[in-house]
């Protein structure tokens, strides 16, 4: 497998991940400021970055297949490990950056989703109070979702 080809592909993917990371950061700031238009704009940028990354990934799989190079992630990882052992450290460094940025994007996206769920819950509670509805105590699940009182007691007791 050509190290140069793989480096080029990884760099292109890393650039896409950087754009996604920026969009996720904008989304986070908009969520914190509770600005509906900024949230909508950030969501559009995030979706555009995801669509772009999906196209890049698909194109890279095709380019690897056409060139006769393996496209399976485990074979790519094995090649990068072999290159690192041969002192092709720029490829190994790029791979580590790629993995780190992917992890950051995943974590930021989860955090943003949890923040949205909490904000939605707060809004629903406020509406319930304004409508004179009875409020029930509630708990949050692992993803930040509001759990119903029945599922809360079952799930919490099931974990003890």
Automatic annotation (TrEMBL):
Gene3D superfamilies: FlgN-like. One of its GO terms (biological process) is bacterial-type flagellum assembly. InterPro entries: FlgN-like (IPR007809), FlgN-like_sf (IPR036679). Keywords: Bacterial flagellum biogenesis. Residues 149-160 have a biased composition (Polar residues). It comes from the Bacteria. The keyword Ribosomal protein does not apply. Residues 141-160 are annotated as: Disordered. The keyword Iron-sulfur does not apply. Belongs to the FlgN family. Required for the efficient initiation of filament assembly. This is FlgN family protein.
